[in-house]
Each structure stands twice: as C-alpha cells, then as structure tokens.
Amino acid sequence: MIDGKQLWKQRMIAHMAEVRRYGRYMFNDHLLLVLFISIGVGAVFYKRAVDELTLFPYAIVASLLIAFAVTQGGVRTLVKEADAVFLLPVERRLRPYFWRAAGYSFFLHLYVSLIVFVVLLPLHVKFSTQPLSVVVMAIVLLTGWNTFVQWQEESRIGRDRFHTFVRFLVNVTLFYFLLLKQYVWMLVPLLFMVIISLYVERKGKENAIQWEQLLADERKRMQAFYRLAHAFVDVPYIKHTVKKRTWLRFFFRLLDRFHMRPYTYLYARTFFRAGDYFGLFVRLTAIGSVFIFTLPRGVEWFALLCAYATALQLLSIRSYHRGHPILFLYPLSPAEAHRSFMRVLLSIGMSQALIFAMVAYIAHGVFVMLWTFFIVFVCYVAVMFYVGKKREAD
After folding, report:
1. According to the model, what pLDDT value does residue 169 have?
2. Which residues lie in coiled coils (predicted)?
C-alpha cells in the first residue's frame, strides 16, 4: 500500500541530497566571498541612497515587487515520470503527499517574498507608517492564497496566463491599499480573492489530477536548476530546449548575411533561442535599469551586481552543445570555439553596458554614465579572464 507521508519523505530526502550535491560546486569559497563583498558594498550604498531620498513612490514599487514575488512560482510536487502510471490507481490515497508538497512550496515562496521585503525594508521604514508585523502577516496570507490557487490551477484546472494576471492585479491592489492604510478599499480585492478561491475549488473538484501537467512543471523547474548548476559543473541530466523567437527573424537574417565564423554564429543563436539565456539577460538588465534610474547614488555598483549575475549564468552557453555529434563535423579547433564564445560574451556585455550607461546618463549625467559603462565592461572582462585561465588550467 502506498503511504503518502513516507513517499514524500523519501522524495524530499533525495531532492535535498541532489541540491546539496550541486550546491557544493555552485557556492564555492570564491563565489561566496564575491557575494558577501557585493552584498556588503551594495547594502552600504543602498542605505546611503535611501537616506538621501525625499520623495519616492514606495507604495507603488513595493506593491509591484511583492505582488510579483507572491504570484510567481508554483507547487513543487517532486513527481517523476513513472508516477503517471504507477500512482494513478492510488490517486485518492496521495492527499497527504500533495498536502506536504503544498506546504513545502508555501514556505519556499514565503522565504523568497520575505527576502524581497527585507530588501525594501529601509524604504518601508522611511516612507511608510504601516507596522512591520501587519505587512509580514499580509505577505504570509497572500502567499498562502496564491499557493492554494496555483495548486488548483496546475493540478486540476490548467494554467491560464489571464488568471495569473488577474491574481497579480489583486495582489498589487490589496498590498497597495494596505500600505496606504485604506482599509475600506481593501474589501474590493478581498472580495475578488474569495470569488477566485470558490471558483478554483469548484472547478478543481470536477477534474482529476492532471499528471502530465504536474510532470511538465516539475521537469521545467528541475531543468532551470540544472541550467544554473551547469555554469559551474557538468550536469548529465540537463535537457536542452529551443524557442522559435519568431519576432527575431529579422535579426537572424542579418546574422546569416554577416557570414560569421561557425562557432560565433552557433553561440549567438544559442543565446537568443536556447534555454532561457535571452530572457535572463532581459530580466536582469530591466531590473538593473529600474534601480539605476531610481536610486540617487551608488547605481554603478548595482549595475556591477546585475552584470556579474548575468555573465555568471551565461557561461553555460560555452558547454551547451558539448557532446553533440554535429560539432565533430566542424574542421575547427577547440581554441576557435573558445575565441568565438569570448566574442559573443563580450558583445552581450557591451550591449548591457550601453543600456546601463544610457539609463545612467538620463538619470544622473555624463560622469555616472561613463563610470557605469566602465565598471560593467570591466566586470565582463574579468569574467572572460577567469574563463581563459580556467581553460588553460583544464
């Protein structure tokens, strides 16, 4: 007989062992030292920048960031491919298993949401009069509600982007009115929360568990973790995905006309179409640009942090096609592949440096623009130098 509690315990032990296994390679002494220094320097400049602020739309910014944190995510079920066959007949006995999966996901997302709020804490102390205990309680309740709705949608109803957008708007509205202490207006998003909860619960009872959807979601989350770990160590379980990016067809045609070297062309298309490299670049660049435009001082160090995070995760492009048989048809040396990767990484770094520099020029002037460009450029050069030295050591 299947015991849901024991099954979850076994899956959780195996999952944590795998996370610790790759975590040893990812969070080595050098990376931890850089992270501690970056966080320390960033915290000092961030505190000074907040102290100099006189006007800041804190309620709007905090509502958007907290709402994004609690809306995103999903329920980690740790299901495996064979579960759709072997566990399907005993689906009704797996309630303890899925309850523990929902609880684990709740605390995982709550941890991320609280980290976001801790980052916003200096702004909250200066620009808001709402007690911290009330805000933390609201984050806990919003995380719990979103976890419940996400579980019903992912496991039984089916994921819908429109539903996710509605939840995001409800989270933004509720948190915004809470920060402004407009408690009467909070009744409107609360009413929507009740209606959405009743709707997803009723629809969920009409459907059985969607095993294919759960497997696809779990596979996607594990592949995201493996891609991150792949930047530090070879991961045998990684599965590559390719996205069409039809809106970039014009750019791809330009690449065809430039008659690039084979590896340069390959790495460029890999950046835009494979995995989530391009999306990662866009997200980190957008986050950095927003803070560069908003903060009065220390923006160049925040740009450095975003550039380092981007370059670090783009390093796995170099080994993305490793072992593919078509590469053996190229009459080119590994040194040529290395030089091509360096060209692509430098081009990406120059693009990000120019974007940060233009935002810094609009918000802070010429000197900050030049300093920001120089720091981001040096960051990418340092990462490339590290890659070159590592290759020589190998």
Report:
1. 93
2. none
